[in-house]
Amino acid sequence: MSRLVVISNRVQQLNQGPGGNQGGLAVALLAALRERGGVWFGWSGNTTPQFTGEIRDESEGNVSTATIDLEPQDIDEYYNGFANRTLWPLFHFRIDLTEFERDFAGGYARVNRRFADTVKPLIDHDDLVWVHDYHLIPLGEELRHRGVANRMGFFLHIPWPPSELLTSLPSHRRLVESLFAYDVVGFQSDDWLDSFRDYVVTRLGGIEGENGKLTVGERSICAMVAPIGIDTAEFEAAAVSREAAFARDRMYMSATGRSLIVGVDRLDYSKGLEERFLGYERFLSQHPDRRGLVYILQIAPPSREKVDTYQEIRATLDAHSGRINGEYADIDWVPIRYVNKGYPRAELAGIFRAARIGLVTPLRDGMNLVAKEYVAAQNPTDPGVLILSTFAGAARQLKDAVLVNPYSAEELSDAIVTALTMPREERIRRWEALIDNVRREDVHWWCDRFIAAMERVEEAA
Ligand code: ADQ
Questions:
Q1: Which domain holds residue 380?
Q2: CATH number, domain at 240?
Q3: Whether 65 and 163 share a structural domain
Q4: In sequence order, which residues have a C-beta less than 8 Å from that of residue 259 and are 6 or more positions away?
Q5: What is the DSSP letter of 83?
Q6: Which of 58, 197, 260, 319 could form a disulfide with 355 if both were Cys (CB 3.0 to 4.6 A apart)?
Q7: Looking at the whole model, is its pTM more than 0.95?
Q8: Residue 461 confidence (pLDDT)
Q9: Ligand 1: which atom is nearest the Cα of residue 25?
Q10: Does residue 271 share a domain with residue 405?
Q11: Site residues for ligand 1, CB cut-off 6 Å
């Protein structure tokens, strides 16, 4: 069995122990690494005044992590620049927020070269190399230039934009061509793969073959859909743990007899938080009889705070929650509890289980794992209702959720009423269909599916 080399912007540290707070992705990748042996390589999160390429490694059995420090300029141009001011907004269809700076593109190329230079000596002849996400699209090509002939795959965790949007990126052609250095390129849903295929065929003159094969000039890739899942068994267990029960009781005691609506998202404009607050406000204004009987708990830990648009969305949400609470709160009831911090996974699972409604309404999302976590945490005999945006990759799998257009305050308001009044039998029926998918297509299934596709590739040259 070939070893695995995982490369991503950030690396999950080993040795987290049982009290650790690993997400499902880290759990699955570490499980695959332990099964095969291998290395996980990426940026340490630290800066250094002068890039040296020095690798810090840590190992545990047959698995190691290897990290490098980057210069402040790298972080400005590559991470806060091209990755999060250019690609992230553009790939989430927010051309209005996309910044096009040559310095960003230059820094992005430089950091990808730095990654390639430093990781290359860690790759053995027969290793499978699996690169993750938009930070590292050109890495495969940089590795090929350095003579790496291994089987290589790339997985995009975020959406792939329609060609009309992508072509607004000055370097769009080079970026897409560089993906042809990989052997396998994976997307979260059919929608994103369709957009990618459209670009390749209509703009690059690529040719479609069987089983996802796409050919441009001399190079062929296998382009596939591999929807990511969660570690469902782990999350289901977390939802009935002592920590979860404690969190659930805290929620119940603080709001006896009121229905909890929960939202948990990184504070990011792609998550549709502003529209969610406005939809909830519409619900409060249209249904005076229901005021006081429900409340929203919105948990939104800040992210990417160096990027201006993230400071702006934070200020906007502060303003909306303050205004809505000011307008509707009473001496014994607050309609929105808005919390800007992270919680341990078991507590989160308990909060999900206490919630009558899970509100997952991104404007655009590659997949969205919170939707799946909400489903996994429910009580099978009295499950809550998932309200899910049709623009999340997860909506392709979770068809039995109450699907909404998150831009429409009226639809959101109606969906809340539908969920609050849904009979128990219907809740159970929908939940059973949802959990069936969340269990079957979990994160281990996803990982195995992608690795199997890489294994099917004949060794390059
Ligand atoms: P994200 O945009 O980060 O991921 P998501 O899929 O929802 O979005 O994952 C977020 C994770 O962080 C979830 O596991 C959630 O429980 C956790 N989390 C969020 N807020 C938290 C809090 N306050 N406390 C503790 N944990 C919290 C990107 C893409 C997604 C894609 C994933 C995986 O944008 O579309 O689903 O990668 O591929």
A1: 232-440
A2: 3.40.50.2000
A3: yes
A4: 293, 294, 295, 356, 357, 420
A5: I
A6: 260
A7: yes
A8: 42
A9: 33
A10: yes
A11: 23, 25, 157-158, 228, 264, 266, 299, 301, 342-343, 348, 365-370, 373
